[in-house]
Specification:
The chain has about 400 residues and is α+β, with helices and mostly antiparallel strands. The chain is built from seven helices and 26 strands. The mean pLDDT is about 95.
């Protein structure tokens, strides 16, 4: 069996190169920037006042000085003259500072009769001028390979990019399998369960930035599964759920290989998630996840998210952090154990119940604690690696 790291490397090697498309900036939140962009203008494009007050020459400023008001500069409408000694210009926040001025006196520090201003004592001595290009300069670069958030959108708008190149969202064909499953909202027989990992994985994949084509539940027959796989021909990635084990009704590998699947690996040294497989179905990357609800979700975090990041041109996530255990852990066996856990008071609290069918435990978790294979056990307070189950960035 492959280790988790080996399996992840094999899966990442399946990733196709990101594809480019152009979208309006107004629709680009959450998309991944495909290539660097540069500012087409400086911000601010002129020296601007950061306060309401009067533009003047610093050399003229002394207690009781009287300056002649020669005009006004407002946001969107500057003053074209040259300020001379003994003059002041009424100015408002965001307005261009006139030529000849090197300071802005805040309005609270003067008295005005509409024609002259008189400077008071104990004035604020700050300049209150934002230099041209103080935020960014024309030609300044905004790097690619990042998911655009609200701050990024605002900056790119200020750089005057109405349309931007982004990575095309990959289409993921999600194929649940199993006679024991019925869709949510349907009536299940006494021997059936509600399909949950299809919708859980759909949400996870969409949060990662891909588009999901959720196929109907494929029956445990070679004919039915083959027909379902044939519907995946236009996808960028195929993800099957269930049917990846070794039972008589686990047909994904057998049927897939007859349909053109070149299997890269099958089974990994991990729990939950041992029956994982990956390869290419007629050139399309394909990952077969376990059918067990928690196993499939855990494998989604461990393997699908890194794969989707690669397809979108994003860098891989930062190295996992390590936090101290709230209680001791017993020895582990031959497979790396991804345990549902919560972080509280800076400690990792691992849930007592780790059966891979317990979605309620997963729902109460905010991380996976990772105990290496053949680990002799960990005392309370020992540092353990954790994988956060947080918002995808």
């Amino acid at each position: 069996m492959l280790s988790v790291a080996q399996a992840r490397a094999h899966i990442l090697a399946l990733a196709p190169l990101p594809l480019r498309e152009i979208v309006p900036l107004a629709s680009a939140a959450g998309r991944v920037l495909f290539e660097p962009l540069t500012a087409s203008r400086s911000q601010p494009p002129f020296a601007a006042s950061s306060m309401d007050g009067y533009a003047a020459k610093r050399a003229d400023l002394h207690d009781g000085a009287v300056l002649t008001i020669v005009g006004e500069s407002a946001a969107g409408g500057g003053w074209d003259g040259q300020l001379q000694s003994g003059q002041a210009l009424r100015i408002f926040t965001g307005a261009p500072v006139p030529n000849g001025a090197d300071t802005v006196i805040i309005q609270e520090d003067v008295t005005s009769d509409g024609t002259y201003i008189t400077l008071g004592q104990n004035r604020d001595t700050a300049q209150y001028i934002r230099p041209a290009g103080d935020d960014f300069l024309v030609g300044q670069m905004f790097g690619a390979g990042r998911r655009l958030n609200a701050q990024h959108i605002a900056l790119l708008a200020a750089m005057n990019h109405a349309y931007i190149p982004v990575a095309r969202r990959p289409i993921v064909a999600l194929v649940p399998t199993g006679n024991e499953l019925v869709n949510v909202g349907e009536i299940a027989s006494a021997s059936q369960i509600i399909s949950s990992n299809n919708l859980g994985l759909k949400a996870l994949i969409e949060q990662a930035g891909a588009l999901v084509r959720l196929l109907p539940i494929a029956p445990d027959t070679a004919t039915g599964l083959s027909a379902t796989l044939a519907q995946c021909a236009e996808a960028d990635l195929i993800v099957t759920l269930g049917g990846a084990s070794v039972g008589d009704h686990d047909l994904v590998a057998t049927v897939g290989q007859k349909a053109g699947l070149k299997l890269d690996f099958y089974k990994i040294a991990m729990r939950p998630g041992k029956p994982l497989m990956a390869g290419r179905l007629n050139g399309i990357p394909m990952v077969g996840l376990p059918g067990n609800p928690v196993s499939s979700m855990v494998c989604g975090y461990v393997f699908l998210l890194p794969l989707l990041r690669a397809i979108l041109g994003l860098p891989q996530a930062a190295p996992l952090q390590r936090l101290p255990l709230a209680a001791a852990l017993p020895p582990n066996g031959k497979r790396t154990h991804y345990m549902r856990a919560r972080i509280a008071d800076g400690l990792v609290h691992i849930h007592q119940r780790q059966d891979s069918s317990l979605l309620s435990v997963l729902a109460e978790s905010d991380c996976l604690a990772i105990q290496p294979n053949d680990d002799p056990g960990m005392p309370k307070g020992a540092l353990i690696e954790i994988m956060p189950l947080s918002t995808i960035s």
